[in-house]
Write a structure and sequence with these properties.
By secondary structure, the chain is mostly helical. Helix content is 80%, strand content 0%.
Length: 130
């Protein structure tokens, strides 16, 4: 929880320190904590991607490649965290897919959308078989 709150507040140093301390003490995060972390990364990445896109369309402004790299890195981090969760929510999968697509990580986005699609097919099949 503290990591997710730190990420939302854009206090990345604190979030990293907490995570490092947890890893040093071999404390495994719960799936709900990992979902909160991934959600925070995905939301921040989408907000950054929108800011970068707005800067590209604004007249006489130069795009900072560092901003684009940061946004893409956050989307990639969201994807990495989602990949560690056993059964992430459909909402988290879709949010992360949107974040990845907004930052040009189309392969990651496609994989997440495929997982959502397969999950829906399984649900429909289970309803039809009962």
């Amino acid at each position: 929880e503290a990591i997710a709150v730190s990420l939302i507040a854009r206090d990345f140093g604190s979030a990293r320190r907490i995570l490092i301390q947890m890893q040093d003490k071999r404390v495994k995060s719960s799936d709900s904590a990992l979902e909160a972390i991934a959600r925070s990364y995905a939301l921040i990445a989408m907000k950054s991607a929108k800011f970068v896109a707005d800067q590209c369309t604004a007249p006489a402004k130069q795009l900072s490649l560092g901003q684009n790299d940061t946004s893409r890195s956050r989307a990639n981090s969201a994807y990495a965290v989602v990949s560690e969760i056993d059964n992430p929510s459909t909402y988290l999968l879709s949010l992360t897919a949107k974040s990845c697509a907004a930052n040009g990580l189309f392969g990651h986005s496609q994989e997440l959308l495929r997982r959502i699609h397969n999950r829906m097919l399984e649900e429909v099949a289970s309803r039809l078989s009962t």
